[in-house]
Write a structure and sequence with these properties.
The complex is a heterodimer of chains A (about 55) and B (about 250).
Chain A (H helix, E strand, L loop, with lengths): L10 H43 L2
Chain B lengths: L2 H4 L1 H4 L1 H30 L15 H28 L2 H33 L7 H22 L3 H15 L2 H11 L23 H43 L1
The chains are: A mainly alpha (about 55), B mainly alpha (about 250).
């Protein structure tokens, strides 16, 4: 068995399908991780500010 | 064992955060391994005698479509728990899975369209399966739009949960549309299909591995997005406390 990357006349349909899926997953991962990090940092910063204000 | 204690880690935000801290990366890694193995096998299997090389698109189209339906079931269950039992974490879970479901549904439509052009000779046809999947996408988008359009978060959550529950009606239509109506979209072509309609057995491995990759990917992304919403809620409550303290 060997890899078959030659899609012939169907390449114009096959590769965009894989490329669009890869881009969609890359965006989903980046957006999800960035959102979690952003809100975690903000919550931690506000907690620190609140701790500083407490007598 | 008391069921309430068994699932406590899914309803108690602190325990959920402790659980998801290791579960999300673990699922992500397992999903990536399945995706790499699935892609390798996808390009190792021979082309189909009827579909040619386009059969390889089935290994990204079928998982996207199947998991998109599964995600909507998760959205419906989480919305029900949020609406009836007022579980805050369930509401966040519902909110977190909508964008993932929308992307999976869009991928199912796009990859299906790219497969349909060479096989059917058309990008799109208003048959029952394609139309009901488009309606599924509209329910996801409507859910997100409704949540974002109301300023009162509790009202937005309630309205969106009701919309999500209404959308559950569409799921059996998506699933059985190919049986109930005469559609251009073929009936089930998975390995559970009627004899003669399913994909050949040689395609079982790429289909299984890519299915696991898409499912694991959803699980990991869902947990990460719920974590983000838990942090956001905490940040908002801390900003209120800060404003009160500053007075």
């Amino acid at each position: 068995m060997s890899f078959d990357f030659d899609a012939g006349k169907y390449a114009v349909y096959l590769w965009p399908a894989f490329a669009i899926s890869a881009v969609a997953f890359a965006w989903l991962i980046a957006d999800s991780v960035a959102g979690a990090r952003r809100w975690k940092r903000q919550a931690e910063r506000q907690q620190a500010e609140l701790d500083e204000l407490k007598p | 064992m008391d069921a309430r204690n068994t699932f406590d880690f899914l309803t108690n935000p602190e325990r959920f955060m402790a659980f998801s801290r290791w579960a999300a990366p673990l699922l992500g890694v397992l999903s990536a391994i399945a995706a790499i193995a699935g892609l390798v096998v996808t390009f190792l299997v021979p082309e189909d005698y009827q579909q040619g090389d386009t059969v390889r698109m089935m290994f990204i189209h079928i998982p996207a479509a199947s998991i998109a339906i599964f995600i909507y079931v998760c959205l419906g269950v989480a919305s029900f728990l949020a609406l009836v039992f007022r579980q805050a974490l369930a509401d966040l879970a519902a909110q977190a899975c909508a964008p993932i479901g929308a992307v999976y549904t869009a991928l199912a439509l796009i990859t299906g369209s790219l497969w349909g052009k060479p096989m059917w000779g058309t990008w799109w046809v208003w048959d029952a399966r394609l139309t009901s999947v488009l309606v599924l996408l509209l329910f996801y988008l409507g859910y997100m739009a409704l949540r974002g359009s109301l300023e009162d978060e509790q009202k937005a959550a309630r309205a969106a949960a009701i919309l999500a529950l209404v959308g559950l009606i569409n799921l059996p239509i998506v699933k059985f549309s190919v049986d109930w109506w005469n559609t251009l979209h073929q009936g089930s072509s998975t390995f559970m299909a009627k004899k003669g309609d399913g994909l050949p057995a040689i395609y079982a491995w790429p289909a299984l591995l890519m299915g696991l990759a898409y499912l694991g990917g959803f699980g990991a992304l869902w947990l990460v997005r719920i974590r983000a919403l838990v942090w956001r809620r905490k940040a908002r409550s801390l900003s209120l406390k800060l404003a009160e303290t500053a007075r």
